[in-house]
Specification:
The chain is of the alpha/beta class and 173 residues long. It has four helices and six strands. β2 (41-50) and β3 (53-62) form a beta hairpin.
């Protein structure tokens, strides 16, 4: 009999960085060109195989906001094992907001596992966020690692969630 472990995961980031698209690609294996703003919270679930059995990820897609203002109620982060913090490779301001989300997440939950994602690599010709910028931010708030991904093409999306699951597993030991 397999062990099943349930973990709450949050996706954080500014409006339009692709949080919902990353979740849809990961959970449903598809991408939708239409931009739909998340209002409040949407919750999805995906179960992945781990060495000990199964991890059921309860994925909270939180409405994007500037400066973490939707998190004035820290209850959204209670019980969260990990977060994927997302910026848009074509919008420098989303990197600044990413840093604020990371800072606030650490204040609310010091033990939270973070994964940093610069999304929309399908738009590399419009890139304004450098590898150095991402490395600096992820070193400040995490282990220095980050992902470049595209919800549109599926590039590295599975890796993002697998990495977070690995960090959560390691933290539970």
């Amino acid at each position: 009999m397999n062990t099943i472990v349930q973990k709450k995961i949050c996706l954080l980031g500014d409006f339009g960085v692709g949080k919902t698209s990353l979740i849809r690609r990961f959970v449903e294996g598809r991408f939708n060109e239409k931009y739909l703003t998340t209002i409040g919270v949407n919750i999805s679930r995906k179960t992945i195989e781990r060495s000990y059995g199964l991890m059921s990820m309860l994925i909270w897609d939180l409405a994007g906001s500037t400066g973490f203002d939707s998190f004035t109620n820290p209850s959204y982060m209670q019980g969260t094992a990990g977060a994927v913090i997302v910026c848009d490779i074509t919008r420098r301001d989303t990197l600044i907001i990413m840093a604020e989300y990371a800072r606030q997440a650490r204040i609310i939950n010091p033990k939270i596992h973070l994964v940093f994602v610069c999304n929309k690599t399908d738009l590399l010709d419009r890139r304004v966020i450098s590898a150095e910028d991402l490395s600096d931010l992820s070193s400040t708030f995490g282990d220095g690692s980050y992902f470049l991904s595209s919800a549109k093409t599926g590039e590295r999306v599975e890796d993002v969630f697998s990495s977070l699951a690995g960090k959560i597993d390691a933290g539970d030991r």
